[in-house]
């Protein structure tokens, strides 16, 4: 089995693959203060819940945009799985041709998404990852990563509204039947969802013009499926796109995983954290 881990700003998402089949996913909060034991025991609880033996896991691959959490996460994998994880961008590359002005500025998760999306949907593409931030990534007809846009996520915007406007409550994000809200909650929900659909529509249309074609639009991320229901320009909602990208990178670089196993009591394990 392969354990794929996507470390995002809000959550760490774990996916367990048997061959090409995703057997299950779970997520925990991203917290740089978590110890390797806290992370490791949480992962083992999921394995126990699903009836899997941790020894069945033969490789671990990680994509991360949160460096502070990596110390504990890597040690958790070493300690509880007797494996040394492969980190995308450090131990293996994605294989995507990156035409960003400074390629190092592109979050590795965006390139991992591109790996899966190109193989699944072809090119040209616009990938919209709707999470803590909303990222738009453009892939041209030759499969080259061109760049994109970054927009504040809907949850961040609503939290800021709650924090900065003393009379506005914290509300769930949901589409309302009518654009004209009859209560404060309805007004906030209508503005949030319709406002973000409008923003998505405008940015996607501008990008499609610059790509000089009818680029396919794929949404992913924690709120990708919900926003895809309301934005007619989104062709596909693929919540496990990053997981699939990690699996494909693993398949393309299996030699990098050879001899990555370590002893359970490996001397690399660090007992003091933070």
Summarize the structure.
This protein has helices at 36-50, 67-81, 108-121, 154-164, 184-210, 224-230, 241-252, and strands at residues 2-7, 11-18, 21-29, 59-64, 86-87, 125-130, 133-139, 145-152, 216-220, 236-237. It is of the alpha/beta class. α6 (224-230) links the parallel β9 (216-220) and β10 (236-237).
Report on this structure.
By secondary structure, the chain is α/β, with parallel strands linked by helices. The chain has helices spanning 36-50, 67-81, 108-121, 154-164, 184-210, 224-230, 241-252; strands at residues 2-7, 11-18, 21-29, 59-64, 86-87, 125-130, 133-139, 145-152, 216-220, 236-237. The strands form two sheets. The protein has a five-stranded mixed sheet, with helices on both faces. Strands 8-7-6-9-10 form a five-stranded mixed sheet, with helices on both faces. Helix 3 (108-121) crosses helix 7. The longest helix has 27 residues, at 184-210.
């Amino acid at each position: 089995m392969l354990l794929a881990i996507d470390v995002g700003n809000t959550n760490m998402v774990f996916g367990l693959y048997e061959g090409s089949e995703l057997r299950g996913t779970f997520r925990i909060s991203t917290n740089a203060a978590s110890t390797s034991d806290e992370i490791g025991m949480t992962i083992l609880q999921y394995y126990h819940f699903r009836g899997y033996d941790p020894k069945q896991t033969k490789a671990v691959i990680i994509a991360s945009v949160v460096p502070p959490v990596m110390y504990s996460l890597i040690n958790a994998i070493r300690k509880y799985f007797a494996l040394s994880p492969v980190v995308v961008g450090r131990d293996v590359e994605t294989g995507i041709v990156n035409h960003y002005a400074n390629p190092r500025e592109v979050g590795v998760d965006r390139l991992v998404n591109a790996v899966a999306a190109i193989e699944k949907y072809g090119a040209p593409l616009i990938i919209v990852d709707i999470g803590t931030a909303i990222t738009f990534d453009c892939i041209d007809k030759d499969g080259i990563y061109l760049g994109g846009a970054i927009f504040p996520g809907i949850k961040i915007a609503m939290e800021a509204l709650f924090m900065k406007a003393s009379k506005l409550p914290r509300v769930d994000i949901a589409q309302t039947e009518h654009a004209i809200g009859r209560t404060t909650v309805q007004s906030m929900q209508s503005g949030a969802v319709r406002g973000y659909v409008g923003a998505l529509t405008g940015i996607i249309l501008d990008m499609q013009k610059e790509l000089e074609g009818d680029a396919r639009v794929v949404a992913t991320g924690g709120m990708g499926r919900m926003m895809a229901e309301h934005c007619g320009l989104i062709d596909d909602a693929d919540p496990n796109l990053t997981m699939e990208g990690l699996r494909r990178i693993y398949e393309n670089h299996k030699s990098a995983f050879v001899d990555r196993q370590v002893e359970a009591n490996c001397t690399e394990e660090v007992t003091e954290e933070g």
